[in-house]
Cysteine proteinase inhibitor (Pisum sativum), 192 residues
Amino acid sequence: MEFHTDSLGVTRPPSKRSDFCKWYCALNSKQLKALKMSDFSMYDDDPKPFMFMGRDFVYKNKAQIKLDEEIKVAMDDYRERSRNLSNFDAISRPKISDRCGGGPGPLPITEDVRLRLTPLCKFALDKYNADKDTHFVFANIVKSTWCPGAMYYITFLAQDSSNNNNTSLTTFQAQVSNLRPAPKLYSCAIKT
């Protein structure tokens, strides 16, 4: 539906508030306790997903039901593909599942990310060296995954500084959270 503004001679699209007004008027015409699923039938064919959780029911329009089915299919496929992967090798969650949360996902190594993760790698390596009485020195970040809440699963390279003849790099994996006031190390080990 379009609104005509005669004084300006232009046609403008309907306000986004019109959907809200329909919904608000439907709610105010009845008490929340008295609402039924049929009160939301005006949204059945709406192209935008819509859901309302009542006290005794959950209403979903056709677009929401279709979206829920697409999310389920995408997440089932994701779970199958990631079933045997460790947190260090996590794959990206489906784009459609942005609202679903979940486990760790890949973290692209940009210069900003490298600056954030390098101190965490060095922190993990210092703890490893202290525990194992070794002398590894951080070399480079290979890859990283992360979970919301500042939990990082970092794969990085280090070189043993006590052996001058050995120039080979050793691959480490560390699980580190970057919470204030200080990072916390959960694990750091040579990748096997």
About this structure: The chain has two domains: 17-84, 111-190.
